[in-house]
Design a protein that fits this description.
- This protein is about 50% helix and about 0% strand.
- The chain is built from 7 helices and no strands.
- By secondary structure, the chain is mainly α.
- The termini are far apart.
- InterPro entries: P-loop_NTPase.
């Protein structure tokens, strides 16, 4: 099982002065050479990069190679394409689709369910705000009659009008 998380991105190991080739070997890259090499090509990873000197996007790509190079029973990916450029994103999604058709693997994208839930939640919250059941409301305050402190300050000291 593998999941790329924000905690892994902050892992001191992936931010230390380790060469990518040594890093991948230290997590079993030598055991999964074929898949590792396919992923290195897809994700456009340079084995001579130093982990502490690469961008967040490059670090994400190395972490994806690390997590996807071995076979898995369950794979959890959350916003896996964040920090990836369009071409790399496309190639990675193609790889995951191929993996999804082989070995009886099944994939599921839950964005539609999440978006439906988020819309319902926002609609409910707005109804509660309009009914006065919420102590604060979100969004622009178009009907606010009390001027803000900055508005008072600029009216007082702005001599342009």
């Amino acid at each position: 099982m593998f999941s790329v998380t924000a905690l892994e991105a902050m892992n001191p190991v992936v931010r230390s002065d380790v060469v990518v080739s040594a890093f991948l070997d230290s997590v079993g890259g030598y055991r999964h050479k074929t898949r590792r090499d396919v992923l290195l090509d897809i994700l456009d990873v340079d084995l001579s990069w130093h982990m502490h000197a690469i961008s967040d996007g490059e670090r994400r790509r190395v972490q994806l190679v690390m997590g996807l190079m071995s076979e898995w029973d369950v794979l959890l990916l959350d916003e896996v394409t964040v920090d990836l450029d369009v071409l790399v994103r496309h190639d990675l999604l193609d790889f995951l689709k191929r993996e999804n058709t082989d070995d009886n693997t099944r994939g599921s994208m839950l964005h539609a369910i999440s978006l439906k839930w988020l819309k319902e939640d926002r609609q409910y919250r707005r109804q509660q705000e309009e009914a006065g059941n919420m102590s604060k409301s979100r969004g622009a305050r178009r009907d606010q009659t009390v001027p803000s402190d900055s508005e008072i300050f600029y009216r007082k000291y702005d001599y342009a009008h």
